[in-house]
Design brief:
By secondary structure, the protein is of the alpha/beta class. It is 38% helix and 20% strand. The strands form three sheets. An eight-stranded parallel barrel has the order 3-4-5-6-7-8-9-10, surrounded by seven helices. A five-stranded mixed β-sheet has the order 11-12-13-14-15. The protein has a two-stranded antiparallel sheet with strand order 1-2.
């Protein structure tokens, strides 16, 4: 079991549920835009939000942002340790430091001492693209980063933080390569009890990023590795949160509401199942059962009917223009296709 770390009102690690994170895509110096996006993230289920702090103006903006949001605020720091100090002084609930570009021991210790005084956890955020090479390379050449390289960078950094008697540490070991990320997290989890933040860095657009993230994050969570996750996508941050919730729900680690089971359709299907499922998804957001952890099945024919979805709480198996409503595998009545969504959400 990993160590439990408190961040604002939430806890990461130990026996706590896996926490969902995202990051704003606004200029942090624009307080109004950043607060607006954080409120959207709060509404869609984000539990911890990170913002980029690229200069002192952004660090100063944290104080105003913090007053207007509910979830804990993490500051993403690179290159200049003084930005971390300014972020802590302006109310950040958590700091992310990059071992690849904030390296001087005295700077790390200076940040750690203030973070300890203010009880602000630090994430040691190791990325494959920014860790120093273990040996000199000819100009223009790069060595392939291994999972063990990411782990070494994290452990070396942790030693410096512990030298300052700082132990409220969370670690992330991220590569854009899924297998490297998995390898790194497996190695680290055997060598340390500090909580792990999971994610595939620079995963790409939604279409491919979802696949990479689901494989990498999902594989590790199935092994009991990981305490908090961020699905990094080139898109709307609420899509990151939705993806994280879907991953956790698919693995049975958390439940956020109804789970829709629907068949892919084939030549047997005689209704517009795609439209029905889309309408159902929208209606569920507004219905009284939007927060209930129930399983709803929508099947296109008798092959994918109550038999294959017998564990669903409620569902419909369609024939020509109509279908049968069933609950827990037992057929209840016949319903028309146009009434399907209403029957499933009432």
């Amino acid at each position: 079991m990993t160590k439990q770390i408190k961040i604002g009102k939430i806890r990461i690690g130990g026996r706590s549920p896996v926490v969902i994170q995202s990051m704003t895509k606004t200029d942090t110096r624009d307080v109004a835009a950043t607060v607006r996006q954080i409120k959207e993230l709060e509404k869609c289920g984000c539990e911890l939000v990170r913002v980029a702090v690229k200069d002192f103006q952004a660090a100063s903006a944290l104080k105003k942002i913090k007053k207007k949001i509910k979830i804990p605020l993490a500051a993403d720091i690179h290159f200049d340790h003084r930005l971390a100090i300014a972020a802590i002084e302006n109310g950040a609930d958590k700091i992310r430091l990059n071992p690849g570009n904030i390296r001087r021991e005295e700077h790390i210790i200076e940040v750690a001492k203030l973070a300890k005084k203010r009880r602000v956890p630090i994430r040691v955020g190791v990325n494959s693209g920014s860790i120093p090479s273990p040996f000199p390379l000819p100009k223009g050449e790069r060595v392939r980063v291994r999972g063990s390289d990411l782990v070494k960078a994290a452990l070396d950094y942790i030693k410096v933080l512990e030298k300052a008697r700082f132990y409220d540490i969370i670690v992330s070991l991220k590569a854009s390569d899924v297998l490297t990320t998995i390898e790194a997290c497996r190695i680290f989890s055997k060598r340390s009890r500090y909580p792990l933040h999971l994610g595939i860095t620079a995963a790409g657009p939604v279409s491919t990023g979802l696949i990479k993230s689901s494989i990498g994050i999902g594989a590790l969570l199935l092994e009991g590795i990981g305490d908090t996750i961020r699905v990094s996508l080139t898109g709307d941050p609420c899509e990151e949160v939705a993806a994280a919730k879907n991953i956790l729900q698919a693995l049975g680690l958390r439940r956020f509401g109804p789970d829709i089971i629907s068949c892919p359709t084939c030549g047997r299907c005689q209704v517009d199942l795609r439209r029905i499922v889309a309408d159902l998804a929208i209606s569920l957001q507004l219905s009284a059962i939007s927060q209930k952890p129930i399983k709803i099945a929508v099947m296109g024919c008798e092959v994918n009917g109550p038999g294959e979805a017998k564990d669903a709480d409620i569902g419909i198996a369609f024939g020509k223009g109509a279908g049968v409503l069933f609950k827990k595998g037992k057929i209840i009545k016949r319903v028309k296709a146009k009434d399907a969504v209403k029957e499933l959400t009432q």
